[in-house]
Structures are given as C-alpha cells and as structure tokens.
Write a structure and sequence with these properties.
Structural class of chain A: alpha/beta
Shape of chain A: globular
Order of helices and strands of chain A: EHHEHEHEEH
Strand order of the largest sheet of chain A: 2-1-3-4-5
CATH architecture of chain A: 3-Layer(aba) Sandwich
Distance between the termini of chain A: 14 Å
Strand content of chain A: 15-25%
Number of helices of chain A: 5
Oligomer: homododecamer
Radius of gyration of chain A: 14 Å
Helix content of chain A: 25-40%
Largest interface: A-B, 29 and 29 residues
Largest sheet of chain A: 5 strands, parallel
Number of strands of chain A: 5
Chain lengths: 145, 145, 145, 145, 145, 145, 145, 145, 145, 145, 145, 145
C-alpha cells in the first residue's frame, strides 16, 4: 500500500514541554508511536526523522526516491526556507505540510508559509492527528475512495 | 458517534464545471455521496448544505446546537466575511475549514483566511478528501486515537 | 419628537452568548427592552431590526423615508461592506454607527470602518448605552441643547 | 442576434437620488428604458435584474445558460466579492463589468476591482451609455466588425 | 453622583474660529457652559481644562485620584502621543475619548487613534454633544440604566 | 457630428506581432482602417497618431483645440506618466482611455492607471472595438441617446 | 511693509554645533542678526522665537493676530506634530515652512512633513537664506512684484 | 554676477489655462517676463527653456557648463524621472527645484520628489516668486549675505 | 570616575502602579535609591530627572556639558520624538537608551525606536538593572575592562 | 558569428565625469573602443547607440530585425519605463540588461528593474566588462560552449 | 553563583577582521578571555560556543538543562530564524540577546529581531561589554541588588 | 592567473531534474565539467563545492584565504541568509553572485537578494554560462582588458 516518510522539523523533539496550549501534551515519542500504530493497522511502512538542521531536512527530501509520500512539519523553517521549498519542487514525491497548532491564528509571521504553495496541501491545527490524516489521504487516493 | 454538518459555500454547486485543474472533476452531488457513504461506514449522521448567500451560512452556523462538529468550505467568503468569523466564534460547536484546492498556492487574495483563526484547524488542497478527513478528525478525537 | 430605527447587524442575535468580556452579558432582547423603555420615557417611537443578511440591511436603510435617524450596528459588515456604505450615502436620513465593544482596541481588521466616514458619527465601546446615547444625540440636536 | 442579461448591483435602484455628480440624474427605470429601446433597435432581447443581495447576483450569473453575454454593474460588491468573481469564472458566458462613474478617480478602495480580472473587459465613467456600449461590443464581435 | 474632568487638547481654545464645517460655530467657552449646565441638571461636578502642552495633559490625567471619569478630547495628540496613552493605562479612572468632528471621514493620518485602544470607548462626529453623552454614559452606568 | 483624435502610445505600431493572446492579431494599420470605416459611416472625421515618445503625445493632447474628443491608448505610459495626466487636465477636450487588453487581469504594475482619474472614463479588454465604442460614446452623448 | 514672526523649533539653539555639513557653521544668534539686518534694510519688523517645547510653538502661532506672516522652522516637530498643523490651519496668518537642510535628501522619516500641507509653501536646503527668502516672498507679494 | 538657466518642464506652457487655483493666473510668458525683469535689475543673464520632452530637459542640464545655477521646475517628471535625477548628479552646476503649487498638500503621488534629493534645495507653493527667490539665493550666496 | 545624568521620561513617576507585569513593582523612588547606592559604591555622582514634558527632556540633554554619560529612558517619546533624537545628535555626551520592559516583545508601535540609532546603544527588558548596567558600561569603558 | 547592438541609456554619455566610485573612470568613448576591439577579436559586428530620449531607445529596440542580440543599459529608465519593457517583449531579438554599478547595493528605488523580467538575463556591478560578457554569452551560446 | 553559556552566532569567529567600525578591534579569542576573567572574578563558570550552523545553535539552546542563563549573540540569524526563537521559547533557561554593534542604527533588515521578543531582554551597541553586562544582570538578579 | 572557488548552494545537486524550463537540462556534473574545461583553457585552477547546508557555505567563504575570487550561486539562501551576507562582507576575496535562471522574472520573494549588495556584482538568467562569465570577469580585470 506504499511507504512513507514523516519529517519533524526543528524543536519538535521538545514536544510535551513547549507551550502545551499550542502543541498539546504528547511527547514526540508518543506521537511517533501513534503514527506507527496507524501504519501497522493500514499495512504500510513509515520512517520518521526529526532534525534541527535545515540542511538535513533538505537531504531527507532529496533522498526520497521510491516513497509514496512525505508528511512534513517544517516547524520554524516554514516561514523562511526557500531552500526546503526548492527541494520539494525538485523531487517527484508528493508532500503534505502539517502543523500541530493552527498557524493561521498565531503571530503574524507564522501565518504565511513559503512551503505550502509547492505541496499537495496543508493540514493545520489538528494536533498529532494531522500526520495520520495526511497519510490517510495518500491511502484513500491510491484506492480511489 | 456524533452528528455533523457540512456547509458548502458559494459556487460549490458548480463543481465539475469550474476549472477542473483546481477543483477536480467530481460534481457536488458525487462529493456528497462520498461523504454520506463515509458517514454510513462510521455510523454517524451528516447533514449537508450549499448556499450562495452569506446570511444563510451564518444562520446555519448559528443553528448548530447539538452538533458534534461543522465542516465548512466558505468558498469566496473565506477572504472577506468577518460576519461568518463572528458566527463561528459565538457558537460552541468546533469548526474545521476545508478547501478543495491548495489556497496557499493561488492568487494573493486567496492566501489569507479571515475565518481560519477562529476554527479548530484548516485542511486545504486535498480535494473532496478534505471533508472526510475533517470528520475523521472529530471521530478520532472522541475515541482518543 | 421623531421616529427612529435601530438596526442590529449579523450575530448580534447571539448576544449574551458570544465573548461576554467584549460584548457584555445582556441578551439582544434585554437590550431592545432598554431601548424601548428609553424611547417611551422620551416619547419617541423606535422600530428595531436584526439581520444576518447584508441585503436586508441595505433594504432597511433604503426604506427609511420619514425617519428622524438610524442607529446602525453593522457588526462584521463594518469592515467589508461598501454596499451598506453606499446605501447610507444615498438616503437623506442621518445614521450613527454604534459598536458595543471598543473596536479601536481589537484585532487589526476591526479597527477600520468602511461605513463610519459616511455616518454622522460613531460611538464605540460603551456597550448597549451606545444605542441610547445615539438616540439621545438626535433628540438633543432637535431641541438645540 | 443573441440574448443578454443586465445585472444592476446594490443601491442602483436609488439612481437619480444618490450623488448626481457621480451617477447622473436618470433613474434606474429610465436607464432600463434606454437599454430596452436600444435592444429593440438591434433586434435582440435583454432581461434586466437589480438586487441588493450578493447571493441573488451569484444565482443570476450561475443561471445564465443560453445567454450571449452578461453586462454586470456590481456596485459596492466590486471591491469585496470573491464569490461573484468565482461565479463568473465558473460559467461559460462572457461578462463585461460596467460602472456609471469613473471608479479610477474616486476613493482609494473603489479603484481596485476583484471582479474585472475574470471579465472580458471593463467600461467605467461613461454613465448609462456603458451598458449600451457593452452590448454593442457583443454584437459587433458576433458580426466581426 | 460623581465628579468628572473634561480635558480639551491643543487648539480647542480656538473653537468657533477654526473650520466651522468640521468643528461647529460654538466657542470653547460656550461649549463649557453647556457642559456645566448639564452637570448642574444632573447634580454632578465637572472641572474643565484646556492645554496646548502634551505634558500638562499627562499631568492632568495622572492627578485624577478620586474622579469618577475623564472625558478627553486629545486633539492633534490623538495620532502621535504614546505618552498620553501610557498615562491613561497607568491610572484607574476610566477615560472616554471624544472628537467634535467625525475623524473616520477625514485625512488618513486622523483615522487612527493611539489613545482609543486604552479608553473605555470613543465618541466622534457628534459635536459638543459628545462631551455630554460621555458624561451621561458614566451616570447611566452608575445607576445601571 | 464632430472631429476626433485617436492617439496610440508606445509599441502599438507593433500590433499583430506582440503577444497575440493579449493584443489580438490585427495590425495597427488594420485597426486604423476599421476606425476610419466607422468614422465614415458616422460622418465624422478622425485623425490618428502613433508615437513612442511621451513628449509627442503630450504635444498632441495640448494641440487639440477644436476637437470633440480624444481617444487615448497610453500603452506603457499609463502607469508612469504624470506629465500626460497633467496635459489632459490642462485642456478642455474630454479624453477616454482605451486599452486593447484587460489591464485589470494582468501584471500588478499594469493595474493602476495614473491617467484614468482625469479622463472621462476608461474602456479595457474589448480589443480594437474599444476605440470605436469610445467614439460611439461621444456621438451618443451629443445626440442625447 | 508689515510685521513678521520667525519661529525656530527644537534644537535650533544649538546651531553651529550640530552636524555642520547639514546645518552650516553659523550660530542661531548669527542667523538672527542676518534676519534683523535684512528686516532693517526692508523697513519691516521681525520678532524671533526659539523653543524646544511644542506647546510654546503652538501658543506662538495662535497669538499671531496682526502679523503679516510667520516663518516657521518646526525642526523635529515637522514629522510628528498634528497639533502644530492644526494651529496653523486655525489662524488666518499665512505660514511658510523653512528647513536649513534639504530634508528631501535625508533619512526616510524626515522626508514627509505633516505641517507643509497647511502652509503657503516650503523652502528647504537653502540654509539661513531660507528665512530671508520667505520674508522676501511676503514682501514681493504685497507689492505685487 | 553670474548666468542662469530656468527650465520649465512639461505642460508649463499651458499656464494661465490649467487649474488657476493651483497654478495662478499668469501665463508662462508673463512669468518669464517677470524673471527677465528681475535678472535685469540684478545685472545677471538668464536663459529660459520649456519642454514637454524628458530627453530635452536632460540635454539642457547636461549642456550647462559655465552656468552659475539652474532653476528647474520638473513638472510631472518630478515624481518619475530617475534619468533627470542622474543628469543633475552628473553635472557640477547646482540646481534648485521649484514648484508653483505646494506639492506637499496635493495628491499622494505628487508629494515625493525623486529629484529634490540631489538638488541644492526645493521651493514649493510660492508661485512664480519661487523662480525669482531661487535666483536670489544664488546671488546672495555669491556675495555672502 | 565621572558624573552622570539619568533621565526618566513620561509616566515613569507612576512606577509600581502601572502594569507590574511589564514594569515591575518598584516605585521610581526605590529605583532611584538603588541607582544612588550603586553610584556611591562606585564613587561617582549621578543626578536624576523625571519629566512628562518633551521640551524639558530636550533641555536636560542640551545642558549636559561636562557629564560623562547620560542614561535615558524616553518612555512614550521613544517612538515619536524626532526632537529628542536631534538633541542627542547635537551634543557630545554619549547616551544609552534604557527600557524597563522588553519593548521588542510588545505592541507593534513600541518596537521601533527613533532615538536608539543616535545613541551608543540600547538596553531593554532588564528592569531597573538596565540603568545600573548602563552606568557600569561607561565605567568599564573608561578603565578599559 | 552574428551582429549586435549596444544601447546606452540616459546620462551614460557623461561617464568618467559622474561619481567615479560607482561608474568607473572610463569615458563612454573609451568603453565603446573596448567593445569594438572585443568585437573585432571575435569577428562580429556591433553598432552602438547612446540616447537620453526614452522614445529613441524604444525605436532602436523595435528596429532590430536581423540582429543576433541586444545589450541594453537602460540607465535611469530601468526603474520606470514600462514602454521599454513592452518594446523588448514585442521583438524577437534577445536582450541582456547591463548595469555598470551594482544596482542591488544602491538606493532603494534602483533595486527593482521593470525591464529585467522580460530580458534573457541581467549583469550588474561588473563595470564595462558587463557589455563584453553579455556579447560573449551570445557567442558561447551559438557555438554551444 | 551559577553557571552560564555564551553562544556566538555565525561569523563572529572573524571578529577583529570584519568592519572594525561596527564590531571593534578585539578578536573573538580576546573577547572570550575577557568574559572568562570576569567569570573568575565573580566565581561563576561560563562555557562558550561559536557556530556558523543554525542547527548547532538550536541544539546548544535545547541542551541547557541546569544552566542559570544563556547569553546569545545570534548574528545574522537574528533576523530570519524562527527556529532559534522556538528553541528559546521551549526551554526554561532565561536568555539575553546581545549585539556588539547598535543594530537599531544599521541597515533596515537588521533593525527587527525575531528572537528578542522571547528573550528576557536585549543589549546592543555596547561592544564586548554587552556579554559581561548580561551575566552581571543574572548575578545581580539572583542576589536581589 | 589565479585560483577560484565555485560554490553551488542548496538543491543545485538536483540540476537536470528540477524544472528544466527554469534551470536547463544539464546536470551539475556536466556544468562542473564545462567550468573545469574553461579553467584548463585559461590556465587557472577552480575548486567546486555543493552544499545544502548554510553553515557549510559560510565555512567555505570564510576559508578562502589566497583565492582570487569566489563565484557563488546561493540558491534558496539568496533571499533569507544574512549570515552568508556577513561572511562575504568579512572576507577580502571578491564574490560574484550567479543565478542560472532570471530571478528578476520569477516569484516575488525571489526578486530581492540579501547577498548581492555585498558582492562585486550579479549575473542572472544566463544559465551555466553565468559561472564561466564570472570567472572570465576576474581574469579580464587582472589583465586590464
């Protein structure tokens, strides 16, 4: 049914600790477990990556040959990284941008994404479910639901 | 498992006809059938409304007592209607904003939503799946997945 | 001493329910009773209208022949409706714009009124008293206080 | 030679009354008579609609199957209605936007039209002749003048 | 029933002389007499101050212990004085901002008030009645009308 | 019935060659023939000028004594020439601005006209018919149609 | 031949000391002597005022009854004082704004004057001659040169 | 005592005809006579040029070797001509920019001068006296008044 | 070791009273005692001034001959006073701008300082310690630590 | 190997004289000699034009049939001439924009080029070499280096 | 008395070499020695880090458990790194932002800090003393000076 | 004749794959071969680096002692990296910025370069020839062509 990559951007390794009102109380490990449980139930494989380094995220997007889809939470790079945008544009794998919090209701500089325009779409504000719904989208599309 | 309302804003009754590159080839009727099929599979009830009139959409949001959630595609009202925003803020039912196309990659005036900041979240660019994933979110949240 | 019309714009029918910090705890019915009590004490007649439909508000302004003054709370239409502005400009009856909350201290998009420039004046932040003070103004002006 | 629809937007029913310097002294009825006289002389049929309700204008654009062209004066909706824009984009009938006054020489917010970019063209500042010249355009185009 | 202070900002001592279309034909003395007559009729005390000096207005706001309310027409300082804003924020007495003319319909730089956001509310465009209505508001609030 | 001048601005001598999607396939000569044929049918005289030089266009506007009207396509000068604007303001002959393409739907810098505010009106997007409709307007106005 | 007032705004008492490239090497006393010498040669009287206090400058403009003209260098108040602007608008005496340095070629915030729009005119960049030329203007105008 | 050039930009040949409220009732010829009378009284020579062509004005600035000063009214080129600015920067002769009307109190686009930053200074709003005062400045500077 | 002046701008006399979250709980008197205790420990002299009047602050900066350094908290004048900026530029004494609260994290209009660019530097957000650290800087610089 | 045209825009005839820090010490004649020497060494022909007139530059671009490429330094027209842009768009010959100075590091208004978007590319900051490298590019492209 | 971390951002390893007017003549090594000498005198420990990699700086902020405070000079990342901002917000250790030069008086893009709003405060323009004063602040706060 | 470094920024390793309309069909390897062939023909040495990591590019610029020149294509970092800008400013080696595509004709955010202002110059839109022409420039400058 396909293989996927989930990329968590900078500071998401601190989840559960940073402003729980915005980001929820789950740790990154707990979120990843939920993603893997979902993957198992759907019979797909998901590899998961977290990095605070823009370059490593670019590399991970570039090295995505053979994947069915990428789910990317670019964190703070969302609003400044033309380079991540260019990486997404250059590869053939479709990408969905996910944000835990509803960025449209936060500080002004968080409301514009440089990256979303070159993605398949964006899910924001739905917490860790965003990652799972993004994968669900890819699956539903493949089997034409 | 809950009851839901899907509100389609202006011009969505023309789906299948308007710019298929952006909006897909399904008609609104076909999308609604998919939503109802999903609802049936999940054992929930969904009522669906389409209107070209801002006031009717405000009324439909105000009269949402007892619903578990609203899925709203505000169409062209997304970018200008403070009144729909105020209606969402005034009721207790959570709302998810959905867009068929990826509004973040379109004309400048389509990239800012007046409505998203008062919603639970926003899904854009995932076609008709956006409606279904929004309902899926409400269900997963209730059963704490 | 004159006859007046009070027009409440969209979502004001939900008063008492929506964000009491901004809008107070009175329901619209209670506010209307206070307005009518005041009218009685001053020996004037006031008709009161609430609508979530921009077109109905335009109609109500257009059909104001014979009135001494209009008190208009345009709600969310304040910031986007050139059409209501044009209606006010086209009729001879003076209009005072009223806002329950102090719009000058709220979100950026609420701080500019498209409608105020063609009104006699604007009262904001004085709660339901704003409606009564606006009518008081018309009366005081007639008797040259 | 074709059948046409003329749509007058909000407040145009007050013509002859609102600021004659900008809008001229003719009433809407008188303008419509001139349009019908022109239609008769050209052997075409024109149906004419005026509405203060955005939703009704959207409906009238959507229900235009079989028409040769639409002449639309969106009035105050010109500057705020993405929904009317989307309706025009979704139908196959060509639309010409007409303004009685020269909007390019008026208040700042009147100088940008959200609607013109999806129309065939725009005529402004030529008073009631604008409607007639728009129809003349459609006729001349059909007979390749 | 309370004691009040009315503060007239810069150039209001010239009333009756400066642009009567905007500011009316009454002199400041005549306006003050009307305010005092109103005060007498309501059995309250009002002290009145006019100054062209920003610092004196700040002092007058700071020295307001024991007052029930302040009615402030900041004149030209409305649009530039963060210091007056800070003074209002720092004291406990509620302040209502009043403008004789409708500032929302004037030059661009007059349409934004730095001071209104920290006031109870704002009344503009109602001439000298604005001062009296502001005091009326305080009285009505005390006796819960 | 009057005498007219049509002024074609810079690069319009290249018509038929430059981006036919925007400007059509007719050459300037062919357009001028259509204008002259129309003039003949209406029994009026039209002189036609094309120039790539801003100063020559200013001269042609200044030397318009005795003309009934000017039809001006300012081309690229539309968006930058205060001097042409001033020339139009200084003479008594009414001017209509014409654009072959629909400038409201093109690049951002083409959407604002410095010249239109001082013209009688503007016609855009109606191809070469724009010139003829502008003259038609002048004629209809003279004979009060 | 008339009597005049020259008002030097804040920090002009430090002339000769502050950035001589911008403001020249003359002290304020030396400039005033040149102004008085010129006055004597023209048989007019000039009184001269310097103040660092906005309120004092407003007072000096208000108390100008009987003067033929005021020459005002508002210094740093040029860019922020709506109150000085209002004072000039309220009195009948014509005012010319003078700047020693060429403000149009300096920091961005110095390039816009809130005050110039209500003055007779502005002279900038001509050093101390600006004061003298402004008075010369008033004299030449009186004797119709 | 020096030789000078006065350059009148586009449309100034129409003076006396264009908006007398802004530009006065004198014709360009009458203004030039006043300038020459002044020149004679001061024993200097002035040559005077008017052109509607930006290139001719650039040429006239470039060919200014041996002149003591240039007085330039750039008219509508003030706000758009980087090329005239560059010409002034490239020659050694000092230039004073003159405007008949007070550009600081007119339309927004007239309030910024691209040219003034590279001039000695700017005089605006003093009518034809502006030209004479500019020359007076050069003379006073030479004889160190 | 030098003599210093500390200038507290408008409303700082209310410290301890105004928004303690932003400004702390110390009164101005208590802060001044801490500054003097520090001065004593360092064997320097400090004179301290508070004023709500922009002009008095300008005077205090101008009369600073012989001082080693000035520590200035311009309060609300930070964002609007070009005149205080000019005073600092005109004197030889170095100035450090201090803010009790972290202005970079507050309202938009508080984030830009007109005054900081002409100071030696700026300290913000460190409460009353900011004054002491500023003096410490001057001392450390003198003895080349 | 092809024939080329080099077009020097306004004020470039003054090279060697205007601000040598920005533009170098070579005169235009010396630069042209270097270009011709290069042309000779490459066995190509280059004709060279300088003009201060926007219209002449448009003419020169329009009359470029048969040329291999144009090298254009638009000087001050870079930032304002939509008409030159349109000329380039209308002809088939590729154009490279060249600037002697690095416009990206200069005044704000010099950093945006209206013309570059319709050129093959832009070279800036490389002095007179820019012209030669632009021609070199055309040659290398032809022989597929 | 606590342990601290000083983080030097990109290019600070080149100190002494880059623009000494802005950054001083000390090398980074010399600055670090001064910091360590100060630490010794205060009996505290300081570890010091320099990195040109945004990700390494994020890591260093995240791994700050047990520290009393961080002193961060984010260099060029100050103006673009939302990710560093998010790291600071997520950890409990207070951070003070330090800049060697006075960023408020430099290029426009250097005047806004994305990072300062989530720091305790900011010190800029005080050279290497800024680091020491920041540590001094932490110490003084602990012992309640 | 000198030694050079070519630095390819993020995503340039994907050349040949990403949008060939913008970037051409050559792979990075093929471009590098062309650069080395050119180097050989000119008897110079070039080392070539590609990195997706901003920090590595900063390091490569800092470690450029002894090089004659750097040719830098900053890719997506062009528009956001103040840190790369600072590195270039801090070293003595001249840098030329190169872009394969014509960035001036692309998305808005690609049209401004933070880096170009501190480079010698910029070449854009000339494909892989841009690298070679940049080196050619350095060579021609050394031998004074």
């Amino acid at each position: 049914m396909g293989s996927f990559r989930v990329i968590h951007g900078p500071n998401l390794n601190l989840l559960g600790q940073r402003d729980p009102n915005q980001y929820g109380t789950l740790t990154l490990e707990e979120i990843n477990e939920k993603i893997q449980a979902f993957a198992k139930s759907k019979n797909i494989t998901v590899d998961i990556l977290q990095s605070n380094h823009e370059g490593e995220i670019i590399d991970a997007i570039q090295n995505s040959g053979g994947l069915t889809g990428i789910v990317l939470n670019p964190g703070g790079f969302t609003h400044s990284s033309v380079a991540i945008r260019d990486a997404i544009e250059a590869v053939d794998v479709p990408v969905i941008e996910v944000h835990l919090s509803n960025i449209h209701g936060r500080e002004y500089f968080r409301q514009t994404s440089l990256i979303a325009p070159v993605c398949q779409g964006q899910i924001s504000g739905l917490g860790h479910q965003g990652y799972i719904l993004a994968i669900e989208y890819f699956i539903r599309k493949i089997i034409s639901l």
